[in-house]
Amino acid sequence: MGAKTIAVLTSGGDAPGMNAAVRAVVRSAISFGMNVYGVMRGYNGLLNGDVKEMNMRSVSDIMQHGGTALFTARSPEFNTPEGVKKAADFCREKGIEGVVVVGGDGSFRGARDLCGAGISCIGVPGTIDNDIACTDYTIGYDTALNTAMEMIDRIRDTTESHDRCSVVEVMGRRCGDIALNTGIAVGAMATLVPEVPYDFERDIVERMKAAQRTGKRHYIIVVAEGVGHTQELTERIQAATGIESRATVLGHVQRGGSPTLRDRVVASRMGYHAVELLNNGASNRVVAMKGEQIVDFDITEALNMPRIFDENLYRVSARLSI
Ligand code: ADP
């Protein structure tokens, strides 16, 4: 028997497209004849009783906006056995049998714990970093890529005018996907990712000098957040090459903005799939994308999968960065 009353929450770091996922969950649930609650501020809403009953109109006009209309939070209180039990008791009190959690790996660990306390949970991957091992794609990634690309195009204009080198830090603490893809898209001279160690002389200085000999006068270097020390690296580049160098950290600009078509469509498909799973009586699953297919995995298995870095794409990037 599937769940009759479900809830949806967004948790951890926000990502453009989360609203499309929430909308899809609410509308799919209603279409399956379920009652559906929106939980405010991640797991905190289950601890504080901050939930609202949703209808078809509750999710009107949210899909085109970045951020999340349900707000999000990190909840240290939920991340304790007592917190998980309190949240599960609240769900039982409200008749909530299933919860769709839109968030990253941390949020999925919370969902697994809530399942352990007797509430069916389904995870939907929402994070701009694309750092979830079980899925080829996470909601918000495409918007973040396009924002980073647009911002770096703007930086290039001024870098070019001044014959400078710009070192641009993009998001991605453990995962270089944003850096790798935007690096290719903006024609970066070098791209540094946390997955591949780099040699300062060989991968940056010598490349810049070689490019300079072929007439190149301005340079873009893309660095993933997880590589770190962007300001220090920029100063080293200037000292080693004599080329005026500036650091830019794009930061949270990459988390906002209207979601792209891809994010809206993938989020809608994933939200629908999550509700279909709950309607079929499934629990402890994560929705994922493999190729262009929407699939699902056991949460524990998904959390244990190793993340695979696209070495091929990295090689392509290295060949083109000259
Ligand atoms: P993300 O989901 O983006 O990875 P976090 O790692 O901050 O973000 O996790 C979001 C929230 O999920 C945390 O604030 C906490 O409430 C919950 N959470 C994270 N890890 C666990 C865990 N091991 N057990 C229970 N809840 C967790």
Low-confidence stretches: none
CATH class of the largest domain: Alpha Beta
* Rg (CA only): 22 Å
Approximate shape: elongated
Q: What is the count of helical runs?
A: 11
Helix content: 40-55%
CATH architecture of the largest domain: 3-Layer(aba) Sandwich
Average predicted confidence as pLDDT: 97
| CATH fold call of the largest domain | Rossmann fold
Order of helices and strands: EHEHEHEHEHEHEHEHEHEEHH
What structural class is derived from the secondary structure elements? alpha/beta
The main β sheet shows up as: 7 strands, mixed
Number of strands: 11
Q: What separation lies between the terminal Cα atoms?
A: 59 Å
Which ligands appear in the coordinates?
Answer: adenosine-5'-diphosphate
Structural summary, described in words:
Mg(2+) binds at residue 105. The protein is α/β, with parallel strands linked by helices and 322 residues long. 43% of the residues lie in helices and 18% in strands. It has helices at residues 18-31, 44-48, 81-94, 105-116, 141-161, 177-186, 200-213, 230-241, 261-279, 299-304, 311-320, and strands at residues 5-10, 35-39, 51-53, 98-103, 120-125, 165-170, 190-192, 219-224, 245-249, 285-290, 293-298. The strands form two sheets. It has a seven-stranded mixed beta sheet, with helices on both faces. Strands 7-8-6-9 form a four-stranded parallel beta sheet, with helices on both faces. Helix 5 crosses helix 6. The model has no long low-confidence stretch (mean pLDDT 97). Bound molecules: adenosine-5'-diphosphate. Adenosine-5'-diphosphate binds at residues 11-13, 43, 74-75, 78-79, 103-107, 109-110, 113, 127. Adenosine-5'-diphosphate binds next to helix 4.
